[in-house]
Amino acid sequence: MTEKLEKKSEKKDKKEQQRKINVVTTDPIADFLTRIRNAIGVRRDDVSIPYSKAKAEIAAILAKEGYIASVEKIDGGKTLKLVFKLEGGKQKVIQGLRRISKPGLRVYAKTEDLPRVLSGLGIAIISTSAGLMTDNEARERKLGGEVLAYVW
Predict the structure, then answer these.
(1) Does the pLDDT value for residue 4 go beyond 70?
(2) For the domain bounded by 24-151, which CATH number is listed?
């Protein structure tokens, strides 16, 4: 009897995992940022997010800038696993995330108008013709583009 219950619970768990991963969103970047924000809010050490090229590039930028400890593909490349970096062993390095350019209202900035997040303490993620990069990199390369998000 217990074996049947265990098999049923395993099937339910698999179906729930598939439902969570196969959710269609109109704004995948906002979903990515919200999952990170929620994981930090409940004090999780890591978060799993459905894979896309843009999300992987944003995660790589966050890792390069020191906001997260590591990024890895799991489940045969269908999921990204982000491990958060801790400051002083307790507090997460990411204090806040904000989506700027949205599907209903795109926000673009020229090189000279690129935003400085918290007077340079945070970063802005910019989508340029040369790919995704931080506001500092875009300024150095003299590129403008779409302002995707702020991270501080």
Answers:
(1) no
(2) 3.30.1490.10
